[in-house]
Structure formats: structure tokens, C-alpha cells
Amino acid sequence: MAEEKTYVADIDRSLYDFRNEDKDAYRIKEGLSEEIVEEISRGKNDPEWMHDFRMKSLRIFNEREMPDWGPSIEGLDMKNIVTYVRPNTKMNAEWSEVPEEIKDTFEKLGIPKAERESLAGVGAQYDSELVYHNVKKEVAEQGVIYTDLESAMHGPYAQMIEDHFMKLVPPTDHKFAALHGAVWSGGSFVYVPAGVSVEIPLQSYFRLNAPGAGQFEHTLIIVDEGAYLHFIEGCSAPKYNVANLHAGCVELFVGKNATIRYSTIENWSKNMYNLNTKRAKVEEGGKVEWISGSFGSHVSYLYPMSVLNGKGARSEFTGVTFAGRGQNLDTGCKVVHNAPDTSSYVNTRSISKSGGISTFRSSVVIGPKAENSKSSTSCQSLMLDGESRSDTIPAMDVRTNKADVGHEAKIGRISDDAVFYLMSRGVSEEDARALIVSGFADNVGKELPLEYAVEMNNLIRLEMKGAIG
């Protein structure tokens, strides 16, 4: 065990908490106004439809009330949030051209190494802009498009983007969807042609370095009939003593008999308000798989949603949430069955310690046309002490008699007997608890690529050590 303890001790939060000197090339003033949105739109050379979309979204944002049904977000004041920070570089297709300090950030996070060894393409975003984007030649030769969303709006796929952008998550959806529509910046566009299977994952990594800033990337993925894609999203930020905001948006269009697997490890620092929106529309015989690990942020509202629109469409959601001191993580998922013979499966684990609050919130809707549909939800919660809290809030709305719907929930604490047994075999109490928690979260680790499963287990160990600040 000496080696194991050394290994754990060698991993510290500095892997994520390091920060660069704030040398951004341009930082818009704090707050949100017509002038600020106009400035963002002008700086990005938006087509007319996008400029109008931003202004419409701003009006909706100003009309909507702040959400008051989940964790408190009183500490988030948009007057103090910088909505756009441009790093001191342009986007590059060659890693060697990225500025040294930004390159160093992603080197520390292991992104170039992962690209060389196990990824078909990588996009790296730093604050409000992508600084690097590249896709392997053999993948591009299959007709796969993987590029930054903003330049794609001015290319041959411009009409496709206009036809799909924020159609799944309209700005009227909620206040922060409207905010996203007004100030979005960065993100990726992926198109996989019919019948093409991208065997190696694509990845985008989002790093927010600037204090008091927001990140509003937009990911738009269209996978055509019979195609397959695994897309990985990673994100992190150093800790500051001021609020940061993440209000990104993910839209997945899954064609007939196509499959998207979307994996996320979110490791924001604990001054972050993570108000992200993710949604997939699945056509006949298609499938969406959500794999989600939520470890960071002060407050999270995060509920990936699957809309099963075609006969036989399927959705699977596998998630783990870890809430430590000062964290209130409200996570879960939504599924809407709109067609017959559709199916959904939800399997989640939530862990809370040191006064952290973890809430699992799910919504399953089975419409009147969704005959012979099946839905199963299983959520398990583990509290590691007497001061933590875990809640399960399921909702089921079934509009047909011909459906099979099930829900199972368990809430418990770490068994003292299990800890005692491991300690009797020479394991310290701290490591025993970390081993038990790792095993509890194992269902998510099995679904992740190896290097991300390792990162997730390291994050759990860091939390158990109390090292994440």
C-alpha cells in the first residue's frame, strides 16, 4: 500500500488549479446590454440571421425570471460577469503555432498526448475562443466535418447550421438558454455522413482561465442515417474568489438508425455556476448514450434530455455526481417518448460528503403515441457523513396504458463493517473509504475510455483526501 499512498499523494489539485496570468487580448466590460451583444456579434462577423438571433435572445433573457425551484444562485450577478474574453491568439490547426502559455495549459491537462494516442480529432477552447482544432486525415477523408462552429457558419455548411442552431434548445426554454443565445462563443460543429462510423472518439476540451468570466460554447452535432460517433467533452477551471459562469449548450441530432455516445467529465472549480443545457433528438431506430461525470462547480443545474421522436428510438443515461463541501449539485436527466417501441434506461450514482448536497432530478414523459415503450430509472445515493444530504426527485408522466415504466431509488451510507474489513487488511481508513466510493461509481467508469476512467477515479480520490479546494 505504500506505493498506492505515494501515488495518491502525488496527485494534487494543481493539475486543474494552476492559472495563467490574465493576458487576454480583449476582455469585454462586465454585464449584459444591447451594446455588449452588438459588440460580440460585430467582432465575430455574424451573418445577419445570427445577429438578429442574438438580439432576440437578449430580449427573452431580460423578460425571464431567474429560476427559483433548484439550488440558490443568488451569488451569481450578471452585472459582474464578463461574457467575452478573447485569448491572445487566433485559432490554429498546428499545435506548434499555439502560444506557449496556452499550449502549456493543455499540455498539463494531457490533451495533446490524448490526441496522439487515442483521439480522431481535438478542439481546445481557452476562455471564449477555440485556440486549436484538428481532425485526423483518415477521418476527414470519410467526409466527417469537425470544425469550429463560427467558421462553419461562413462555409458550405452555413445553411445546415442555420437550420439546426438552437432548434432543440430554443432561447425561450429558460433564462440561461436565452443568455446563451445572446452571447454564445466558441464550440464545435460535427457532421458525420450517412453510413460512416467514426471508430475513434472526437474530443473538445473547455478551459476557463479568466476570473469573473463566463464561458458559453455551443456544440452542434449531426449524425446522419446509420452513422456512429463517440464525442468526449472535458472541462476545468482554476479556483477564484469571484463567481464564474458556465452556460454552454449541446445539441445532438441523431439520424435514423444512427448512434451518438456523448461522454463528459466536468471538473469545474468550486466558484463556478454550471448552468449547462444538453439535448438530443433521436429518429427511428437511433440511439443516444449519455455518460456523465459531475465533480466540480459550486452550483450545478444539469439535466441532459433525450427526445425520442422515431419508432424504436433509444436513450441511455449513465451518470455519477460527487458533491463535496460548499457544493450543491442538482443533476439528472429528462426523456420524452414521442413514438412507439421507444426505450430509455437511466442509471445514476450520487455521492455527497462534508456537507455537500446532491440532488437527482429526473423526468420521464411517455406520450399518447408512444405505445409499447419502456423506461427504467435506477438512482443510488451514498452519503459519507452525517452532515451531507442527498435527495431523489423523480417525475413520471405516462399518457398511454401500453407502456412499461419502472423507477428504483436507494439512499445509504458507507458501511462501517466494510471500512473495518478493509482496514483489517492493512488499508487506511481514508483509502478504504476511497475504494468503496470508487466501486460505487464503477458503473460510469466502465463506460468511459480508459484515460477518462482513470481521471474520474483520481478525482474521487482527491475528493476523499479533501484536496479539491
Describe the structure in your own words.
Helix 11 crosses helix 12 (429-440) and helix 12 packs across helix 14 (450-465). This protein has helices spanning 2-10, 14-17, 34-43, 48-63, 100-108, 111-118, 137-140, 149-152, 158-164, 175-183, 416-424, 429-440, 442-445, 450-465, and strands at 26-27, 85-86, 121-126, 129-135, 145-148, 188-192, 202-207, 214-215, 218-223, 228-236, 244-246, 249-254, 259-267, 272-275, 277-282, 287-294, 299-302, 305-308, 314-323, 328-337, 343-352, 357-366, 373-383, 389-398, 403-413. The strands form three sheets. Strands 5, 6, 8, 9, 11, 12, 14, 15, 17, 18, 20, 22 and 24 form a 13-stranded mixed beta sheet that branches. The protein has a ten-stranded mixed beta sheet with strand order 4-3-7-10-13-16-19-21-23-25. The chain has a two-stranded antiparallel sheet with strand order 1-2. It is of the alpha/beta class. The longest helix is centred in the first third of the chain and has 16 residues, at 48-63.
